[in-house]
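ARCHIVE CARD
CATEGORY: sequence design from structure
SOURCE FIELD: tokenized fold
FIELD CONTENT:
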């Protein structure tokens, strides 16, 4: 099982300190790679006041240039917003910078105003996505090819440079419903989870994903689980330093109406329908089976459960959220992960 980090590149309220934030992320990545983290990922959204990263391929290239061994990826690139040949070219360049370490994580996106801004009908997202994945696979062969689909049509195109990674960079598909999990199993090389659904949901979804891949005859079935995580000297420190930022992040989805459906699946957790305020969303209620946090021993035990019962190939942690913890506190957390947690999985069968 490999361990990675997802960097949330947001600076609320108005993105006034993004250059500093970017430098801090580069410093965090350098320390994490030195301590044994094996993959770094960046997300994508558009038109966000806090500067939420709108150009993940650009930032991935910068990370690739500043690292030596860790894989670099997107989690996720909103593929329907792009022409797939442009993505194929940019990803191939990044893979050359990274000497074959690039992973393209893609998803549908589905935010109405983002699709409106790029003049792409939201109703076409799924079909554009499927065509784009097919085109990417052909583009990275380096051979001339033609394509005649519903959305994309061209003849005798050759994409250069070729990626370093052979036969091509992996394409991971973000999915958080049975329909999208089955699509990921059919056409992707891996599945990326969201960080908000609980352990039982992820376990059930991993079975749907693997079954769909087996039915499609797809031999590549990597599972990358995205989890909010924090390790500290005591559980009290976790609740004091880290939990307020996670609670604020979760309650953002409450205000969007996602506690009845979507990000928090009420079919699995009926009690989320009753949540109306922060007082209902406590650490004791939320942390079990959703957050990976605590002392090094507690975190090792929880990660071992994910490894045994879900069998994921990657665990990707979100440590720092838009409101915090601070850069220095995040560096300390990375150090504890690298010295007290990750070595346990290299030296034993936890």
């Amino acid at each position: 099982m490999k361990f990675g980090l997802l960097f949330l590149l947001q600076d609320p309220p108005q993105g006034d300190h993004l250059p500093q934030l970017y430098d801090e992320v580069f410093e965090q990545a350098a320390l994490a790679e030195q301590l044994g983290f094996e993959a770094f990922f960046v997300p994508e959204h558009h038109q966000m006041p806090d500067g939420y990263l709108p150009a993940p391929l650009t930032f991935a290239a910068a990370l690739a240039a500043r690292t030596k061994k860790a894989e670099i990826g997107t989690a996720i690139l909103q593929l329907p917003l792009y022409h797939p040949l442009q993505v194929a070219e940019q990803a191939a360049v990044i893979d050359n910078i990274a000497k074959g370490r690039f992973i393209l994580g893609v998803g549908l996106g589905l935010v109405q105003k983002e699709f409106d801004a790029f003049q792409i009908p939201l109703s076409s997202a799924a079909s554009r996505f499927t065509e784009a994945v097919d085109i990417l696979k052909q583009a990275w062969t380096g051979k001339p090819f033609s394509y005649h689909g519903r959305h994309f049509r061209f003849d005798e195109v050759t994409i250069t440079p070729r990626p370093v990674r052979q036969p091509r960079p992996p394409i991971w598909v973000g999915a958080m419903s049975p329909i999208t999990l089955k699509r990921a199993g059919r056409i992707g090389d891996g599945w990326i989870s969201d960080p908000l659904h609980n352990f039982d949901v992820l376990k059930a979804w991993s079975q749907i994903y693997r079954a769909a891949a087996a039915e499609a005859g797809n031999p590549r079935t990597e599972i990358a689980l995205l989890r909010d995580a924090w390790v500290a000297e005591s559980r009290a420190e976790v609740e004091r330093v880290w939990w307020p930022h996670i609670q604020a992040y979760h309650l953002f989805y409450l205000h969007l109406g996602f506690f009845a459906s979507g990000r928090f699946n009420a079919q699995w957790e009926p009690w989320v329908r009753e949540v109306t305020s922060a007082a209902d969303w406590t650490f004791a209620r939320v942390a079990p089976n959703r957050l990976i946090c605590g002392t090094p021993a507690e975190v090792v035990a929880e990660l071992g459960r994910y490894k045994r019962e879900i069998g994921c190939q990657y665990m990707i942690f979100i440590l720092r959220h838009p409101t915090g913890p601070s850069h220095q506190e995040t560096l300390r957390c990375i150090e504890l992960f690298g010295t007290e947690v990750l070595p346990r999985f290299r030296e034993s069968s936890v």
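CARD ANNOTATION: The two ends are 11 Å apart (CA to CA). The first strand starts at residue 2 and ends at 6.
SHELF: design records, drawer C
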